[in-house]
Task: inverse folding
């Protein structure tokens, strides 16, 4: 019988809005949910969508970032070196690095940035930058 809080899936098995799905209690979920209606399960921290044929199905699982992006920034340039090693210690080769001119605040594009390892990049210039001429920002 199809009635309040009860539907059937494609195999004809009754689905109860209050039913446990894989041990998850849906008693607080909306009654008589509309197709596609989304419910956030507070204990599971998961989003579910109602489908009249299959019941509540997981649609989006909220994940806390295991490794959120971090930033390291430092001024570089000593007036002599054209190659500068920057130890960012972010522990990742999946990084983005930018260089900004400290006097103009414009980004610098005439430098080469190479990932050396998970904690280090190497920045190379055609001519040596003056003391603290540039600021390198590494995000990763």
Result:
């Amino acid at each position: 019988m199809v009635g309040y809080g009860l539907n059937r899936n494609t195999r004809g098995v009754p689905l109860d809005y209050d039913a446990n799905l894989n041990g998850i209690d849906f008693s607080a979920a909306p009654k008589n949910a509309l197709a596609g209606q989304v419910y956030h399960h507070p204990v599971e921290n998961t989003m579910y969508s109602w489908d009249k044929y299959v019941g509540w199905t997981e649609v989006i699982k909220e994940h806390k970032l295991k490794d959120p992006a971090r930033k390291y920034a430092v001024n570089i340039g000593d007036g002599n070196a054209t190659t500068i090693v920057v130890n960012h210690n972010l522990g990742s080769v999946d990084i983005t690095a930018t260089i900004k001119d400290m006097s103009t605040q414009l980004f610098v594009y005439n430098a080469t940035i190479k990932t050396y390892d998970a904690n280090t990049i190497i920045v190379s210039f055609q001519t040596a930058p003056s003391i603290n001429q540039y600021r390198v920002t590494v995000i990763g």
